[in-house]
UniProtKB/TrEMBL annotation:
Protein species of origin: Cohnella zeiphila
Pfam family, one: PadR
Lineage: Bacteria, Bacillati, Bacillota, Bacilli, Bacillales
Transcription regulator PadR N-terminal domain boundaries: 7-79
Name assigned to this protein: PadR family transcriptional regulator
Residue ranges occupied by any Transcription regulator PadR C-terminal domain in the UniProt entry: 96-172
InterPro entries tied to this protein: Tscrpt_reg_PadR_C, Tscrpt_reg_PadR_N, WH-like_DNA-bd_sf, WH_DNA-bd_sf
């Protein structure tokens, strides 16, 4: 899940406390992601239990203790695992895909191409479905749904545009040296 990846990447940048992790994710991706306490703190507990991060207590005068989270070597490996884990289900979710693309510098050309081709395949299937529905009648009456048709037209245009973009990313990945940061 992308939220796990975003949390770990923030901790990888530097040790942080929970609110700081949330604030940094919101700053980077606020228009795409809403990180709430019900996502953040259970993930931090799970990562601590798995040994992916360590939690250090920072005692503060006249204020509650603060816990600072730091990435372990297992956490670094977990980030690589999460970036490369991109399923057919993930391919249907814009945010999952966009986050992977933003991290392409960290993965091999082979995995970049796998992710891009999986997303492209999903988009082509979506486009075929949109185009089948685009020219349908409203419940056999012969009347077109004006606003429905507009939504479908826009959806088809947006999907075609993303497919063109992915084709360009595929061309770039195919010509790149395999010089990713591991």
């Amino acid at each position: 899940m992308y939220i796990d990846l975003l949390i770990l990447i923030q901790i990888e940048k530097s040790p942080k406390h929970g609110y700081e992790i949330k604030k940094e994710i919101q700053k980077d991706l606020g228009h795409l992601v809403d990180v709430n306490h019900n996502l953040l703190y259970p993930a931090l507990r799970r990562f601590t239990n798995e040994g992916v991060i360590v939690r250090n207590r920072n005692e503060q005068e006249s204020r509650p203790n603060q816990y600072i989270y730091e990435l372990t070597n297992a956490g670094k490996a977990k980030i690589v695992e999460l970036i490369n884990a991109f399923t057919e289900k993930d391919a249907r979710h814009d945010i999952e895909f966009m986050i992977r693309v933003s991290l392409f510098h960290r993965i091999s050309r082979e995995n970049r191409l796998r992710i891009l081709n999986r997303r492209k395949k999903d988009l082509e299937s979506l486009l075929a479905n949109i185009e089948r529905r685009q020219f349908g009648d409203e419940e056999g009456t012969g009347k077109r749904r004006t606003f429905r048709a507009e939504v479908l037209r826009y959806s088809a245009s947006r999907t075609k545009s993303e497919i063109r973009w992915i084709d360009e990313l595929i061309r770039q990945a195919e010509s790149d040296e395999d010089d990713f940061d591991a």
